Hints:
mainly alpha; rod-shaped
Amino acid sequence: MYGWPMESWGPGGWFVMGLVMLVFWVVVVVGVVTLVRVTSHHGTPPPREPVDSAKKILAERLARGEISPEEYTALVTLLSPDTR
């Protein structure tokens, strides 16, 4: 048939065309994955609330016996956002 240049390439042409198509799809997939990774957050955890850290420290101090349960309750009440 006239106008079909692939006939003159032989079987090597089909191999090259398949290889080029494979490379094309690999580039597309790598590009999409890279785009998603760049635009998404970088895996950094959100900043923790200082109140939660302070409550954790108070709980540890209570567990070690450094403060009494009454002191713990008073300090946790002081740290709660409702009393600010």
